[in-house]
Amino acid sequence: MSQFSTTRRVALSLCAVSALALTAGLPTAAQADLAGETVEFVIPFSESGGSARWANFFAPLLNEALAGNPTVVVGYRPGAGSTAGANWFQEQTTDDGTLIFGTSGSTQFPYLLRDPRVRYEYRDWQPVLASGTGGVVYLPADLGARFDGDLDDLQDEFFIFGSQGATTLDLVPLLAFQMLGLQVEPVFGIEGRGDGRLMFERGEANIDYQTSSAYIASVQPLVDQGLAVPVMSWGVLDDAGDIVRDPTFPDIPTFAEVCEATAGCETEGVAWDAWRAFFVSGFAAQKLVYLPGSASPEVVAMYQDAMAAILARPDFAEISAAELGVYPQMIGDAAVVAHEAAITVSDEAREFVLNWLRDDYGVTLQ
Predict the structure, then answer these.
(1) Rg of the chain on CA atoms, in Å
(2) Where is the secretion signal located (predicted)?
């Protein structure tokens, strides 16, 4: 099966299950109760990025929806491109519902690439929520003024980009920048995307991207002040599995549009197929909430019921739009399908990316 066929199949699966996200595969009863308990919602990132905003959005809603109304607090375990926190979670045996873990594409990519730092196995964990998201690339006002739908006029500019690492979620923008012919020097080692935004604000970087929740909260004010200019979003998948404009940012062109308009960038071929595969893993099914594999069916059912109650809130669309944008929130069977899509990539796409990482950044995964 070709790389395009593989990623199209995954894309169509994600589109199909999103329509079932409120009800699919949910148990009818849950016996677990967390009255008087504290639930730790751990993410393997710092407090300043999109994952932190996502986790802190859901934490108080879980506090209200979980049986017994436990106190839900967000904990942070950044490091090693998020693999440190994921390795820690793999070793946890807390199975009473007082520990959940939130991953992102930055955690999924090292797994997909068989990074030797990875000592975690996604298939050991039990997914209870999958959140799609988007991302927006933006420039300082002076450079943004030179953007007219393509990036031909910025080919000679030298860009600095704050990055968590070439094998993190930043793989998607780094590969996009390379395909667009931009001269981008990544500064590796930041702990979260929010740190990249702070570099941009301090003038230490002149190109950046943020996932949707962080962009809405922290970059849109810069745009409103004339300090930043959005140039492209990653887009979203439509029902046919095609990349279309992100409904959260309908006025911002997609990477596919900008690529087609920029000399030398193509939306076909192995580079495009690889970018698209990691886009699906990193954004269409980007953030997931997991229970440890040892959690009982009753605990899993309690979380599934709680997530269903959250998504069924009459005000959910309103409150989530401001924090998360307009993206599917998948639970039950839909979350399981999204989980599989997020941790699956073809051998061809993996090999292309591994060669690119070695040749462009000297990153060798063995």
Answers:
(1) 20
(2) 1-32
* Cβ count near 229 (within 10 Å): 17
In a domain, 232, yes or no: yes
**331: exposed, middle or buried (Cβ count in 10 Å: 0-12, 13-18, 19+):** buried
Is the same domain home to 29 and 97?
A: yes
**Burial of residue 306, with CB atoms counted within 10 A of its CB: 0-12 exposed, 13-18 middle, 19 or more buried:** buried
Please measure the distance between the N-terminal and C-terminal CA atoms of the chain and give it in whole angstroms.
Answer: 26
Tens-digit pLDDT string for the chain (366 aa) = 444 444 555 555 565 455 444 444 444 444 689 999 999 999 999 897 788 989 999 999 999 999 999 999 999 999 988 999 999 999 999 999 999 999 988 899 989 999 999 999 999 999 999 998 899 999 999 999 999 999 999 999 999 999 988 988 899 999 999 999 999 999 998 988 899 999 999 999 999 999 888 899 899 999 999 999 999 999 988 777 788 999 999 999 999 999 999 999 999 999 998 999 899 889 988 899 999 999 999 999 999 999 999 999 999 999 998 778 888 888 999 899 889 888 988 899 899 999 999 999 999 986
Contact 287, 57 (CB under 8 A): no
**From start to end of 78-219, where are the E strands?**
99-103, 126-131, 135-140, 158-163, 183-188, 208-211
Element (H, E) at 74: strand 71-76
DSSP string over 10-39: HHHHHHHHHTTTTTTT--S------TT-EE
**What is the domain-level CATH number for residue 8?**
3.40.190.150
Interatomic CA distance for residues 222 and 322, integer angstroms? 16
The continuous run of DSSP H or E covering 196 comes out as helix 193-201
The answer to whether residue 36 sits within a structural domain is yes
Q: Does 169 lie in the same domain as 68?
A: no
Asked if 162 contacts 195 with a C-beta cutoff of 8 angstroms, the reply is: yes
Same domain, 263 and 141: yes
Name the residue among 337, 331, 335, 287 with its Cα closest to residue 306. Answer: 331
Look up residue 181 and give its amino acid. Answer: G
Cβ distance 194 to 49 under 8 Å? yes
Handedness of CA 203, 189, 107, 82 (dihedral sign): negative
